[in-house]
Each structure stands twice: as structure tokens, then as C-alpha cells.
Amino acid sequence: MRERIQTEKAPAAIGPYSQAIKTKDLIFVSGQIPLNPETGEIPEAFSDQVDLVINNLRRILEAAGSSLDLVVKTTVFLKDMNRFQEFNDIYARYFGETMPARAAVEVSRLPKDVEVEIEAIAQVK
Description:
Blueprint: E1 3-5, E2 20-22, E3 26-32, H1 46-63, E4 71-78, H2 84-95, E5 101-106, E6 116-123
Parallel strand pairs: 4-5
Antiparallel strand pairs: 1-2, 2-3, 3-6, 4-6
Helix pairs in contact: 1-2
GO molecular function: deaminase activity
Family: Belongs to the RutC family.
Organism: Melghiribacillus thermohalophilus
């Protein structure tokens, strides 16, 4: 079983990929950038970008019947690793005590020149 997840509550894919794919046990959410799904705008402040990315992830997970609480792994792409602690402070507010496994890497450039992108794998409820 492989189901494509699509919601208008998160940004549409800006390339040839799905927002997420749901299998029997897991949901694989494509990398999300801080793109406002209603306006297409990108916030300037780093903290606002991180909040929007995580909220976009949350909306896709909810459309798939899951939640941030069921995320088991994330991969974080940062334009500037000097913002790692600031990122961690924001990220920690969303995932509670049992943090998902995670990788975080600095990259030279992200789509639309944003500061952060996150992809996630979550359990199905």
C-alpha cells in the first residue's frame, strides 16, 4: 500500500514530488520550506521560518492521519549552522520529551533561498 498525501493546508509541491507518501506503517513527508500555503510568502525572520516549516509538517501529518508526536526521524537542512542553537530552541518546543531521531546538516543553498528545510518520517496512528 502506498498513498499520496496532498493537503491545501500546506504548500503545494514545487517540483515533481508528493507532499508525503503514506505506507501501511509510516508517513514520509517531503522536505518542507517556510512557504506560507495561503499567500506563497516566506517570512524574513529565521524564527518565523522555523515555526512555519514545522507547522507545514504538522498540517501534512494531520492530513495523513498522524501528528508531530508520532514523528520518529527528521532531517534538517540549515543554510547557516551558526543558527543551530536558535533552531534547537524552537524545534524543542514542538516535539516534547521524546524527541525524534534527527540529522542536521548545513547546506550552501535551499529552494527559494530559505534558511531552513525539514523532512520527516512518522508513524501512522
